[in-house]
Amino acid sequence: MLRFMTRALGLLLLAGAFAALVADGVRSIAGEAWSVTPLGAAAIWLFPKSFPILQPAVERHLHPWLWDPVLLNLFLAPAFVVLGLLGVLLFAIGLRRRERRKAP
């Protein structure tokens, strides 16, 4: 059951990465310049009320350096790259391992 959930979440993230890539491609073609959506902009668009309270929560409950060098750089990365890598990782974790045959 857990394996199924990780594969399903991985596929959803891969679908989101593909949608973000298509949206960035359409915007780049229409604007005649390379345009990518950062993960932070996509997160603000998806979660407008809860995203602004993420920074104080991370700095207060976890550690301040986790926000500034780590999460800020992650939120500046293109959304399709981050979603794609997370999707591939979760899908790979959810794959069934093959049993190795013993040599006679």
Walk me through this protein's architecture.
The protein has 5 helices and no strands. The chain is mainly alpha-helical. The chain has 2 domains: 52 residues; 40 residues, no CATH class. Helix 2 packs across helix 4 and helix 3 packs antiparallel against helix 4. The chain is extended.
Give a nutshell description of this structure.
The protein has 104 residues and is an all-alpha fold. The chain has five helices and no strands.
SSE map:
Layout: H1 2-31, H2 39-46, H3 54-61, H4 64-76, H5 79-94
Proportion of residues in extended strands: under 5%
Provide the low-confidence segments as ranges. none
Strand tally is 0
Shape designation: extended
Q: Summarize the biggest pleated sheet.
A: none
The helix count comes to 5
The helix-and-strand class reads mainly alpha
Radius of gyration: 18 Å
> N- to C-terminal separation?
34 Å
Mean pLDDT over the full residue set: 90
Number of domains: 2
Order of helices and strands: HHHHH
Helix content: over 70%
Which short descriptors sum up this protein?
104 residues, mainly alpha, 2 domains, 5 helices, 72% helix
